[in-house]
Amino acid sequence: MAPSHEGSGSVFEAVALQKEYDDGQVKALRGVDFRIQPGEFVAIVGQSGSGKSTLLQMLGALDHPSGGSLLYRGSSLAERADLAAYRAHDVGFIFQAFHLLPTFTAIENVQIPMLESRRTTAERKQRATELLGLVGLEKRMDHFPAKLSGGERQRVAIARSLANDASVLLADEPTGNLDSENATLVMDLIVRLQQEQHFTLVLVTHDPGIARRAGRVISMRDGHIISDALNIAP
Amino acid sequence: MTFLTIVTRGLWRRPVRTGLTMVGISIGIAAVVALVGISRGFETSWQAGMKTRGTDVVVSNMGSALTPKPFSATVVDRITPIPHVAETCSLLVDLVGVEKAEMMIVSARQWGGFSWKNLKIVEGRLPNDAKEKAVVLGRTAAEVLKKKVGDTLQLETEELAVVGIVDGGAVVENGSVILSLPLFQELTGNEGKINIIDLRVTPGTTKEEIIQLCDKITSVVPEARAVVAGDHIRDSQAYRIIRAMSWGTSLLAVLVGVLGVMNTMMMTVFERTQEICVLLAIGWKRSRIMRMILWESALLGFLGGVCGVLLGVAGVKVLVTAPAMRGLLEPDLNPRLLVMAVAIAVVVGVVSGVYPAWRSSRLMPSQALHG
Prior knowledge:
A: 6-stranded mixed β-sheet, about 25% strand, B: 10-stranded mixed β-sheet, two-stranded antiparallel sheet, 12 helices
């Protein structure tokens, strides 16, 4: 079943989106078109070099497209002057390698994005405590990343991505560095949070099992979208 | 957790490197404190000596040496008739090695002159007359020379009796060997020569009148120059050279500090490239990243500055107890100098952090996804 490309109110709308590196010698995205609706859980799948991570970078405004357009809630991301504010408040990022800051405890790591918010010190701490409770780490809040397991680290990273109440979560191979047991736990957590909080989730993976849990799967190869289909029973 | 927590953690993640950089800044700042403190101390110690002697105006010829050039004692005859001149006292002052002391102030004073009157006898007595082959020692000079009343002191070729130990009320006075002018002139073959005239003005003379008096004396005595007491050291070419060398050496030390901090901060930025990219990816503004690096750099400078001030003060305290320095000067470690030294260190930190901060702000957040 093909996803609907109709209707307004999309979270993202990409039109002929392109990304080139090395003066055009490497074409990571060769003109992709899609729309993502609020609350969707979209998995982007494909082999290494297919362009899926580049696409995630474009959605997260971590890099600029070389051509085409990418709209966020109807406005062009390329024309936004406050991309840092977009990254701080509109989207949350979960990385494959967790990327927690090693010299900060779990609760401090969760507070770091909130320094860009207007929350007071006490409010930041309270919010971080709530989020760590949400991901089941209330008893590990004062541990440094080195003292946490891989699964726990990723749960801290998930809490961090939700710190500023983002309406979109972008996850780059979130279970890529985890064993199967922890991978399942982390995916269960992400899916549960998405269902409870109704944020839009765009997840890059090459694991078909994880992709099957998404509501929609975009498959990529050589910078093109080769299929874009809804999962009937995610 | 606050922004400052992030700044301090950034520094402590490499404690050895941070510590070594702090040592580098500390040495630079300690050099500033010690050298500038000592050169200023030289000035203030001599000013204090003048004040204790009750001198208002000094007539001397401060050339490029540390002591003034000698001139004819008859110069006094041209000065005393000038209005506002109440009293004069001729001196021949020299810095010479005395026995085992490498450098001592020898202060030969006109017999009966007012410059004897501030000396309080601690032990013994003053010389009986201008011809008595005797000296009195300031308290510190006596300690440095390990002399007591009744001992003899070898000065030039003559053995002189130590007849008294005195408190002159100032470091320079207490560090001096004091004797009568004619005796020292004879010992050094400087008969009829003096190199300083201490001058007191008549009571009620205003500051402006003192300055006018100085100009008048300088015009009638071309071989010397009259300046308000204390200023003669500042006017001295030798003192200017000392001061310039102090600042020059300090500047070099500070420059080394700048390079040290810059190197540390560049290493920090290189090492934390991915971390900085992650911070950008999770929404930190580039300006916040820059501020983080600049604050780290400034904090490093501040801590290095505080340690440097402590090190400098301790170093100076030790230095002035050295036999070669005792009694010559009291270092001027006033709070303004210490605050200025810390401020210099903070500026060093900030300046050193500018380039690394700029480099860090140029990083692309997309690098967070790599690795």
